Amino acid sequence: MENNVQSHVMFVSDTVWESYGIELLNADPTIEPILLTSAEPLPAKILDRITTAFFSGDVWPLRTREMMISILKAPNLKWLHTFSSGVDSPVFQTMLERGIRITNSAGASSSPIAQTVVMYLLALSRNLPEWQRAQQRHEWQQRSFQELPGTTIAVIGLGAIGQEVVRLAHALDMNVIACRRTPRGDESCPTYSMTDLSAVLAQADWVVVALPLNADTRRIINAQIFASMKPGACFINVGRGELVDEPALIAALQSGHLGGAGLDVFETEPLPTESALWDMPNVIITPHNSATTPQSHHRAALIFIENVKRRAAGLSLRNEIVL
């Protein structure tokens, strides 16, 4: 992006500007902020001036609608940075088709998401939900449980989240294997291409899905894939709900072929109240909440600030999405 002296009119939340305004101005003194402060839509004369926007974690989900409506109506927007790593929503595709540059915060939330995976592993291996039910009944219920060391975990997708899951699984002395679109040969565990997915899953006691959502991966985890998994294996999804054929997942759980599931993402969100998943005793549900920490939002903001500095210096932007 070329250096110039014109101001960059930046649309950010009031929270972001209060926390990072000084750093942003240090990165680019030409910034002129426009703040999201309420649910009221911005007037057209203000929207016309916006050239840069930051969709930050503090906005999601309560003020997402207000911010995204303004962003979509800003006719001169040139660059959007999003706190999330996933840009599979149609709204991002629309912006790319308009020629708007999009960068994301890939890697900012990998630590808390991978730690949530470990929470699922520990809770499901020990059947924590049953201990909780016994506690509610005031019952002293002792039982044996499965240890994680020595069991095999298959990590599907080796982006920042998948790599962190692999690291933590190694720390738990688990046997780790993985699948990714194109193995590089330098991975820290045996890694196979997606064409070997069924064979890899057949070996696993635990399956963790951390794939991005695109045309190739939508419903990639289907009835046939579930059938290829080892009987009693547990399934964890921290990627996107649409990666999974949800009725097939429910059927595999109801039949007992799957031993349990830890799910942070779903085909429809919020998960409909009538979904059978809610009442399954061997399913742990978290409401697409595995990355919502102040630290991950801070790391995302630092990536944005770095990109602001890079743009001001005429350098390429970090984590730019290509149409």
Query: What is the chain-wise order of helices and strands?
Result: EHEHEHEHEHHEHEEHEHEHEEH
Radius of gyration: 22 Å
CATH architecture of the largest domain: 3-Layer(aba) Sandwich
First and last CA, distance: 17 Å
**What is the mean pLDDT?**
95
Shape verdict: elongated
The biggest beta sheet is recorded as: 7 strands, parallel
List unreliable stretches of 5+ residues. Answer: 1-5
Give a summary of the structure in a few sentences.
By secondary structure, this protein is α/β, with parallel strands linked by helices. It has helices at residues 14-27, 44-47, 64-72, 90-97, 110-125, 128-136, 160-171, 197-201, 223-228, 246-255, 294-312; strands at 8-13, 31-36, 52-55, 79-82, 101-103, 152-156, 175-180, 191-193, 206-209, 233-237, 258-263, 283-285.
What does this structure look like?
The protein is of the alpha/beta class. The protein folds into two domains: 8-108 and 294-312, NAD(P)-binding Rossmann-like Domain (Rossmann fold, 3-Layer(aba) Sandwich); 110-285, 3-Layer(aba) Sandwich (Rossmann fold). The chain is built from eleven helices and twelve strands. The chain has helices at 14-27, 44-47, 64-72, 90-97, 110-125, 128-136, 160-171, 197-201, 223-228, 246-255, 294-312; strands spanning 8-13, 31-36, 52-55, 79-82, 101-103, 152-156, 175-180, 191-193, 206-209, 233-237, 258-263, 283-285. The strands form two sheets. It has a seven-stranded parallel sheet with strand order 8-7-6-9-10-11-12. The chain has a five-stranded parallel sheet with strand order 2-1-3-4-5, sandwiched between helices. Strand 1, helix 1 (14-27) and strand 2 form a beta-alpha-beta unit. Helix 1 (14-27) runs parallel beside helix 11 (294-312) and helix 5 (110-125) crosses helix 7 (160-171). The protein is elongated, with a radius of gyration of 22 Å. The protein starts with 7 loop residues before the first strand and ends in an 11-residue tail after the last helix.
